[in-house]
Amino acid sequence: MAKSTDRDAIVPRTARADRLSKVDSGVRVLQVPSLAFPDARRIVDKATRAAVATDPDNVITRWNDESATLLGFTAREVVGRNLQEVIRARDTFGNPLCHHHCAFHSMVRAGAAPENFELDLFTMNEDKIRVAVSVVVVLGPMADEYSLVYLMTPIRRRRRADEAIERVLAERAPVGRTPTGAEERGRRHQPRLTSRQKEVLALMVLGRNSMEMADEMGVSVNTVRSHVQAVLKALQVSNRLEAVSRALKERIL
Known about the structure:
The chain contains 12 helices and 7 strands.
């Protein structure tokens, strides 16, 4: 009969014998069906977007059909391989991720969950694509037994934002027009805006609201609002109308 204590360790009936040996002798072992813990494979299989599961060593354990469509690799070609070797992920600044996706696994071991983020991946045909990534942490019966499920959505809406910027640049001044002195001064003292802030400013010139900008840029509304505030501060104006007015008068874009 198991010793009665105040602590329980829940272990699936399908657990290996060596898992039980890791449980403290002062803990009562309760055997329950394995369905007590989520199955990363089922999550991947039922996902409606590209999904891949990895183990704590960043080795691919599941790869769905949507991932095959997005990246060109079949499950047979990638299961058992290191995820980073397959997708060659880079952050939005172009820096390659750690071979074992160290940051993500360190967060899980520390009891935290990774936030949503964007990555640039390479397909089997060497095409670079940007995806929005959500990470689902699937815990196992022991602290060092877990899976990471990467849910990936391609960001194609960014192209519309790029096209919007091109329209603004094309329409900002008639061909052959001579800039005024004020415009020349504006050029000499233009604020320094990041490419993302210029993208937001261009969409503001086109009259987009925060929701529309978020949709076209493939980001959250809160992220758009943060960029808008940064633009207002850089332009030293108090609202969007003033920002648009200065952008047009001084040909900032």
